[in-house]
Structures are given as structure tokens and as C-alpha cells.
Design brief:
By secondary structure, the chain is α/β, with parallel strands linked by helices. Helix content is 39%, strand content 14%. The longest helix is centred in the first third of the chain and has 12 residues. The two termini are 26 Å apart. 31% of the residues are buried. Homodimer.
Length: 148
Amino acid sequence: MEGKRVAILGYGSIVQQCIAAAHMLRSQDIYITVADARFCKPLDRDLIKQLAHEHEILVTVEEGSIGGFGSHVSHFLSLTDILDGSLKNLISFRASLQLRAMLLPDRYIDHGSHEDQLEAAGLSARHIAAMVLFMLERPKEALQFKHK
């Protein structure tokens, strides 16, 4: 899925939630890019660079914990001066990339259906859509995406 300003890079089965979030956002005329990372290592450096250079906001989403896929992406972006911007970016007046990682929280999640666990972990489609709206400075619109 291709859009503007925001790219979501999903890793693993969570990509389906990312796609659902993109459809929810389309109902508000927000068109985002959704990419499937396919594998954690080795990183698809070309894909990550492309997403970072074509978008203002990059959100990684995974059903992993701190130190996982999102951390690898963050580390790569910081080593290549993409994350915080570089002198070259400042000269061209390109804003720095905003990066957010969505992953499992560091707390116990009760047993339940996969959908219930994603909801409890804050990784459901509505949570992903809400993160995008927050990053776009439109948090009040996230209230439209209620839990069923």
C-alpha cells in the first residue's frame, strides 16, 4: 500500500493489523504506506532507506519486545544519519524523520483470543491508526476508532 507522509513497516503477522489500520485511516482521507518487512535479519536496508526518505513519519510494528525488529531499524537509521538528520539534511531544509516503534508492552497480558491480546497489548488496528493520528497531530480523531 502506498501513501504519503506516513509509512508503517510491519514485521510478521502484525502486517494484517497494519493493513486494517490503513483502511481505517482512509475513511478519514489519510493515505499511508504499509510495507511488509518480511524478515528481521538481515534488514532490508534499501526498503528502510526508501521509506525514510519518502516519508516524514515511520512507525515500526511488531509482536516482539524491546530489542527486536524496531530496535534494529532504529539502530540502522541512527548509524546512517537518517534518524536525527545530518548536515546535508539541514542544508536542504528536510525535516528529520520521526520514528515510533509499536511492540509488546513490558507487562503481563492475560490469556485470550489473539485479537483480545492484540487489543490488550495496544497493537490492534485501531491502536496503530491512533498512533498515526497522534503523530500527525490529530489525536482527537483517534476517538472515532472505538473498541468493539
